[in-house]
Amino acid sequence: MYLIGFAQGTGAHIGDLAHGGIHAYSSLPQSWIQVFFVSLVVLDPLVVVLVAFVLRAGIWLAAGVIVLDVAANWTGRWPSLHEDPARLLRPVGLLPITLFGVFVLVTALPLLRVMSH
Cα separation of 18 and 47, whole Å? Predict the structure, then answer.
C-alpha cells in the first residue's frame, strides 16, 4: 500500500508540475506548502525506493512525509473546506490523503517492529 500511495502521489505532483510549472501551487497562499508540494516530486519516489528495498528509513520517511503532506493539504484547503464542508467527501482531495495518512501512521510502528527482527 505504501508503494501504491506514494507512487500515486509522485504521479500527481509530476502532473501538477507538468501542467503548471514551478508555480503549480501558487494558488496556495502559504509559501512553505508550495515548496513542500514541489519537493514531493523527490520525496515521494524516495519513499517508494526505500520501502521497496525494505529499509527502515523508508518507513520513517513515509511517516514524516505523510504527516507534512496531510498538514499541508488541510492547511491549504481549509478556507475552501470551511466554505463548503461537502468537499471533504470528494473522492480526490482531502479524504483519500487523510485516510492514507492514517493508514501510514497506524502501520508504521508495527512495520518497524517486524523489520527489526
Answer: 21
63 CB-near residues (< 8 Å, 6+ apart): 104, 105, 108
Residue at 111: amino acid letter: L
| Digit-coded pLDDT (tens) for 10-45 | 999 999 999 999 999 999 889 999 999 999 999 999
Q: Taking the model in full, what pTM does it have?
A: 0.90
Non-local (6+) Cβ contacts of 82 within 8 A are: none
Distance, CA of 116 to CA of 68 (rounded, Å) = 25
Taking the C-alpha atoms of residue 112 and residue 117, their distance in angstroms, rounded to an integer, is: 9
Report CA 21 to chain centroid distance, whole Å: 19
On average, the pLDDT of the chain sits at: 92
Residue type for position 47: V
Nearest to 88 by CA among 73, 102, 106: 73
pLDDT at 92: 67
Tell me the mean pLDDT in the region 43-59: 97
